[in-house]
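Dear U.,

For the methods section draft, I wanted the exact inputs and outputs in one place so we can describe them consistently. I've listed the two proteins in the order they'll appear in the manuscript figures. Please don't edit the token lines directly; just add comments below if something needs changing.

First protein:
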Amino acid sequence: MSNDCETRAWVEVDTGALRENYRTIRRTIGDGPAIIPMVKADGYGLGAARVVRALDSLGPWGYGVATAEEGAALRESGVRGPILVAGPLPPHATERAATAGLIASISDIDSLRRWAAAAEVHGPLEFHVEIDTGMGRAGFDWRETGQWADAARAESGDRLRWTGAFTHFHGADAADPLPSQTQWRRFQDALAQLPVSREDLLIHACNSAAALRWPEWGADAVRPGVFLYGGAAGPDGPLPKPVVAVRARLVLVRDVPPGSTVGYGATHAARGWERWGTVAIGYGDGLPRILGNTGSAIVEGTRVPIIGRISMDMLVVELSAVPAAAAGDVVTLIGRDGECEITVDEVAAQAGTISYEVLTGLTARLPRVER
């Protein structure tokens, strides 16, 4: 489901900025570690195939996804390099992942045995072991490495190759570095106990924030995500180039007398004569509903407030500061217009969430347009 491009509301994707953010990661970590761009959730909502096209010439190791279906879709789009499913595979997804030649992340011996059985049918397959150092949602327990590592080694062989090990930081974007430092030490302790040669494994731990803050932890590879897509990563790292702009059109402009109310619940009433503009975008497009009466937009380079509650398909802005605004004009909800800018992180802060959720929440009703 999508609307005609630029007739109602749309998302602009700056692939040049996406590539520049990748280059920032590369400059920070140096030439040694490989880069595994995370393109899960359809490339953080921007289109995974589009992201791959933009980044492929920059030499990534491969790509990371969250599900077998996402990996298979990348294969169907033409990706031939490594694709890592960076999370446990449900039993019913094992066959699809094997057929697509994906690299499985293994968190328990039962999953490894299913993957080994698939390798007997589909030819050589690879897996990376996830080691849980405190995230808690997946991975073998770092404290029990001596128990599971030998079992994992016994299942691997010519048909099933153990080619990687990784962990995931739960607080790399927090001000306090101690939790991440603790996880890093735990990871090193677990790696030292693995019954396979270090040279045979791709070791990776760093997401965007960790790669930018502690490039010395880059190991063999890093897994950047939100920074590539224009979201800030960590309290003291470089700012990314904005990749996403969300724009919509004014569909109605009118002057209203004092006391006029707007939106469900009539939460805004005009204090005097006001000029209101109806904008063709709402929470059905993924714009957070909580921005009603708190968020803002840009019209003709001027920031204007969102008034009233946001509806599924529309919202209203107060246009008294932009008297020349008319139906058909472009309204910017995220992005730059002239000297004025609203970042995805600003919107996330106003909505009480994170940039990841804002980006991935933009629905398929908004066409994606490359700029």
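Second protein (the one for the lower panel):
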Amino acid sequence: MSKPFDATMRKLIELEPAAWLRFLRVPVADPDRVRVIDSNLSTVTAEADKVLWVDDPEPWIEHVELQAGRDIDLPDRVHYYNASLGRSRKVPVHTTIVLLRPAADGPDVNGTYERRHRNGDVYDWFRYDEVGIWQQPVEGVLASGLSVIPLAPVANVEPDKVPGVLATISERLVRETSPDQAATLWAATKVLMGLRYPKERVEEFIRGVSAMILGIRGIEGSSVYQDIFAKGEAKGEAKGEAKGRVEEAREAILRLGRKRLGQPGEGVRMTIGAIDDVDQLNSLLDRILDVSTWDELLASHGPSA
């Protein structure tokens, strides 16, 4: 698979390996017993995508293979990885192929792999599971662990619903993560959206929603923010960029506020529309999850009736 998607997915699995097993419907009795181990099969000069060790009383391995493009040798390859891992680690190995987009699918990726003699008799048989991300209900992805939710925009969701999906992702990041985690997961979301949409469409989708992420206090100190978001900001004219961030922050407050506080009245919209300082708007965004009414949120910014 292509390197950006490969690196992004591997990093997400490393963040919460047990959350990924839940998402892939691989039963595990105790999530605390799941850890990532070295996937390098040095004795056979090969490397599986991700190898998770489940330290049950009788340990076993979950091998996760990620695929974004068509590969007719994929079933043969994962069979090879599975057998090599079992031989080197001396434990049972279960394999799940994660297909990231329809282009990776094909009739040969059907859950079984077999080899036959010339007379047609099967002499080698291997079973694996497969998960097509585009077939997964978006509601289930959004309810999964934080390291799984970057896949939501490329799950089973219509394009016109993607802005709402991104808003839900950003709300979870605001509530549940640190600035560094939020920046990392938001960056992963942008990268993985490239599995389905061209770059221009991705930018169109995230316009406005990204203000929720940029409003997380302290995110500017994140190395991920500096490397990804700050580079993008440097490309625009400073004045136009500042205006754009103000508009995005206003839109983010209204969008998140509708879900948390109800439909805003005309006074609320006028008050928010009159605030031109992005720091003040980000301060409101920080507080929106801690108040129960629009009046309480805007108490320091004049009347909101």
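Candidate sentences for the figure legend, describing the second protein: Residues 247-305 form one domain. The longest strand covers residues 60-67.

Thanks,
Y.
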